[in-house]
Amino acid sequence: MLLSILFFVLSIVPSVLIFIWLRNRQKDHILYRKKCTYSFVSGLISVLPIILLSAILYILIRVLNAVLLKDINVLVYQAIYKFIVLAFAEEITKFFAFRFVLKRNPYAYSWADIVAFMVIIGTAFGLIEDLPYAIGASPIIMLVRGFTMGHVGYGFIMGWFYGKRLHTGKKRYGVIAILLPWLVHGLYDFSLTPELLEVNDNLAIIGVSLALLDIVLLILMIRFFIRAKKQERYTLPLSTFEQAQHEEPTL
Length: 251
Fold this sequence. Notes:
251 residues, mainly alpha, 12 helices, globular
């Protein structure tokens, strides 16, 4: 028991360090630091609407399965469940939490600020998600989840493309900001489905590859913030959220 607690604490250290690092990016910018803290809290409590949305989607899929798709293949059902009930519910809820954070006491955010807020939301949500997985999990599983940090990577993708959407004014980047992390997230969840592995054990390489991708995204995220200090397009203020929302009301 004590060993499990120790490994769990070790597994959350990277997430805590990321939050502290991003929050201290601008030590003299009080509003930015408050926004980072607010983003973290929003990420923690976003699990509540996700539970509700997931339950609604689960019921809808069960009804659809019973009425129209009675003979649906188990693997197809799992794909629908992983991509819609799990991945979609989580990513869309985090996105709206992110939008709410931007809208609250808005100022002229930079592209890097926007990425930081979304990464922090993903970090906080990942911490909450790891709690039930830690119950009964092996120390290795806890450490793997703690150091790959999928939600940090998904948050980086979403924040980067949404920042590009505001930077360029092109709506398609806002669509990519939701679509790409959702697809990667859904594919990762689906790759861990037992029914998929029963088809062919070699398909386990998909999950391994996506876990490695999470690490690559983490490295790219760190590299982004280090290089952003020297690139004005990432540090100069963008349009305020209200202006961007007026220009493109859909995303």
